[in-house]
Design goal:
48% of the residues lie in helices and 12% in strands. The protein is of the alpha+beta class.
Length: 401
């Protein structure tokens, strides 16, 4: 079968989005022979259809393109309902509004800690100096881990992501096994020093039951291993992309500084515009037609959220940042259906706080050199050199954290 696009081409900041715009118009269900062959959906409606129909499109075979799950099943993402539900039920309890807002002051402390050296130096690489360490430090608070453990997770996930982008299966396996070792240490630590299941996610997973039986420990291990990676990689490429955009639009920087109550709306528009995922996948359980193309049983399908969130049929002028879009709630930055990202509430609060502190403590942010882009399965930046000038701290901070 002839290729409709090449996922291995080197990309610039907007080149992939230009290609996806073409595909939405000319070939919305596209095929590539890369990584043993896969389909890619680019339109919002088609992706929503797949997300809402796990009986036809399963996540149990291959949950990302290229395939990387070589080292075991990891709930809840690797399971379909109802098998995934007990694990989601536990995780959901830690992402309520009250739980997330209780974590907000710690997130703010982390953001300030990482920003201060950048401001003092007046320059740096925003990804290397801020977004790379950020998730690990937040993770330490969320899971009640020593900072050293959280930063070790950060180091291993960087290697894991690099191996993914190089499609190096052996390095992916090695990094994944190291992450399993860390997750196992987390479990052993909680067994040795228990915490309340109401306060600690690892303790909650160990205490949880399904139909009167405790969750299998190997699946608890897989859940922690899954959570480690998902929470570590996305903020790097997303926040770096946002800073590139802010550097190109100093008037928007100033507007958000002057009117910080607009920041929550800006966060969601940025999530739509710079959605960091394009490789989450499902596999057809049977032959199925989408947009007139036949996808065969057992063929993997990449759900390109980044393309769907710029689909002109849903988001007019989708390549442009527009504050307060009336239908912004339809964005798929966190997926949809039964596998919608459990951590979405925490991510939104974390990004809001970061924007508050970044803009409130600076007077200008400018690019200082060429950026470096990620490859599949993410889309966004891995390196963003910046000149950054300190400014007055935001006088009136929005409530929460």
């Amino acid at each position: 079968m002839q290729d409709d696009f090449n996922p291995l081409v080197e990309e610039t900041f907007e080149s992939a989005h230009r290609e996806y715009r073409r595909l939405r118009r000319e070939c919305p269900v596209a095929y590539s022979s890369a990584w043993n062959g896969f389909w890619m959906l680019t339109r919002h409606a088609d992706i929503e259809r797949v997300l809402r129909d796990p009986s036809t499109f399963t996540t149990t075979v291959q949950n990302v393109v290229p395939r990387v799950a070589f080292t075991g099943r990891r709930p809840p993402l690797h399971l379909d309902p109802p098998e995934h539900t007990p694990y989601r039920r536990v995780l959901n309890r830690f992402f309520t509004k009250s739980k997330v807002e209780a974590l907000a002051p710690r997130i703010r402390e982390v953001a300030i800690e990482l920003l201060e050296p950048l401001l003092a130096a007046g320059e740096g690489d925003f990804c290397r100096d801020f977004t790379h360490p950020l998730p690990g430090l937040v993770f330490a608070h969320f899971f009640h881990l020593p900072r050293a453990t959280a930063m070790r997770i950060r180091e291993v996930t960087e290697g894991y992501d690099l191996a993914l982008q190089q499609a190096n299966d052996e390095l992916v396996k090695q990094a994944s096994l190291r992450l399993y070792e860390i997750a196992s240490e987390m479990i052993q630590e909680r067994k040795a020093r228990p915490m309340s299941p109401a306060e600690d996610p690892t303790s909650a997973l160990l205490a949880a039951t399904d139909h009167g039986e405790k969750l299998p420990e190997d699946m608890v291990l897989g859940t922690l291993r899954q959570f480690i990676v998902v929470g570590m990689i996305a903020p790097i490429v997303f926040l770096g992309s946002c800073v590139v955009h802010l550097s190109e639009h100093p008037e928007l920087q100033q507007k958000l500084r002057d009117q910080p109550t607009l920041i929550p709306a800006a966060v969601h528009e940025y999530l739509r515009l710079f959605t960091p995922y394009r490789g989450f996948a499902r596999t057809a359980r049977r032959d199925v037609q989408i947009q007139g193309r036949l996808i065969g049983v057992d063929e993997p399908i990449a759900l390109n959220y980044a393309s769907a969130n710029r689909d002109e049929a849903v988001f007019p002028d989708g390549d442009r940042f527009i504050l307060r879009r009336p239908n912004i709630g339809r964005h798929l930055a966190f997926g949809g259906g039964p596998h919608r990202c459990a951590g979405a509430p925490l991510a939104v609060v974390m990004f809001r706080i970061i924007f508050e502190e970044l803009l409130g403590r600076t007077s200008s942010i400018e690019l200082a050199g060429p950026i470096r882009m990620s490859g599949w399965p993410e889309i966004g930046t891995l390196s963003v050199p910046v000149h950054i000038k300190a400014g007055r701290q935001m006088r009136q901070r929005p409530e929460g954290g």
